[in-house]
Specification:
heterodimer; A: Alpha-Beta Plaits; 2 domains; two-stranded antiparallel ribbon; 5 helices; 21% strand; B: alpha/beta; Aspartate Aminotransferase, domain 1; Aspartate Aminotransferase, domain 2; 14 helices; 12% strand
Chain lengths: 160, 400
Amino acid sequence: MDEILKILEKDGRQTPEEIAAQLQLPVRQVAKKIAEYEKKKVIIRYKAVINDELVPQEGDARALIEVKVRPQKDKGFDGVAEKIYRFPEVVSCMLLSGTYDLLVEVTGNNIHSISNFVSQKLSQIENVQGTVTHFILKKYKENGDFFTVTSKDERLPVSA
Amino acid sequence: MKAAMNRKIKKAYPLPKLSSVAEQMPPSGIRLFFDLVLTMDDVISLGVGEPDFNTPWHISQYAIEKIETGFTTYTSNSGLMELREAITDNVRKTYGLSYDPVREILITVGVSEAYDLALRALINPGDEILVHEPCYVSYKPLISLAGGSPRVVSTRKENGFKVLPKDLASNCSRRSKAFVFNYPCNPTGVTYSKKELEALASVIREKNLFVISDEIYHHLSFDHPHISFPILDGFKERCLYLNGFSKGYAMTGWRIGFACGPSPLIALMTKIHQYTMLCASVMGQYAAIEALKNGSEDTVEMKNEYFRRRNYIVKKLNDIGLSCHVPGGAFYVFPEIPACFSSDLEFANQLLKEERVAVVPGSAFGRDCSRHIRISYAYSVDKLKAASERIERFIKRHQG
């Protein structure tokens, strides 16, 4: 991956000036490259990573759902996947190798609303053959960020 | 009544006269500043001499497994043979040098212990040891403690803080026995090309000096591959190569270093080590084995991150009025303070008081360094940015 993307993937708030200094490139070149990435949707958007373990909210249940799918002619899994990921309840949707086909992460107000989503929406989609729902109890790490360990600097403030 | 008597007895016992050598040793400039920083809140410290990364998890995990399976005993004085063999392999692959794991390698408690042992094994009364300045804080005091006399080879900003062959030659006397060399250098970050090393080597040969080469930052050479001193012609026999795991593998707290060199010297060092330390911690030694076997990708990743931060901080500091050269390695910059400040101590103290940013005064690293400060970039770019904004505000305020 391009160094500019690597830096922004870790910290989306870094400015073209800061990135240019680190990579020893002209600022204009970096700014132009970022604009291109944004235009081509290589960079889809910038957002904050929020530790929801520290701001628990009423009505924030999450589940991972294994979905078994019968592939369609010409479209394979893509058609069914799209029917699933278009639901606003679906946070992520991936096609996997292994014993099931799609892994779908959904959110809901509570266990019941997720159950309703699975029984009334997800399992009703044509070519969905079966589902297994796992409710998320606690998040430890996501996308490289720890959610339970505080990253306090334990080093002595001054050392040789 | 009894309690009162006890108090009386305690009061009556005066400590014997303590060691004058130890008492006369100057306190570390870093220590004085450290005590001050500890009394303050909300400090952004750029004074740390260790990586901000955690030890790669597979390394910690390997040591934990060893503890869980009962590997908690002493090891041989020289260190685990498996570790010495891994070092032999690593040094051969990296530098083409061949050290015998039985007679030419000693595992120590960090490079600090290896350095201390080397001095104690080398020095006879009256011997002079050449050391460049600025340099790591313990080089000179430990020479004195071992009964030698440190002789300083000053380096200057206009030469990028490099040791010049003519300066090394002109500082040699008949009593000069060895030259202590550290590159990439703490605190200046200076690295050397092969040509520059060869020029120094030729003076060292001519003056018949031995070399103690502290290469603890060898993973962090950014602009060219690090060249190890003992690879120079004839220097495997004339050099003690010191290295360790603290900086490149982010393993400072494990305290594992090593020395490779001529077997008579290693044997003497081992003799002292067996009386003073017995052995380095066994769990640290296992962690080091895992680091050598499976940690090379970690060191590259960390190096790339330091490289980007170096570029960022050097540009930023020069922009805000702290003029500095581009350090070729380690994770420090050694900028010059603006003329409106009377000394490094004034700069560092005022910066700490007014803006809550800690840097280390240059004079901690040498007598001619009172116009410099050491800034560590073992911090995220975010932190470096916040700190440099504070420093910029501070300098502008003082420049009026």
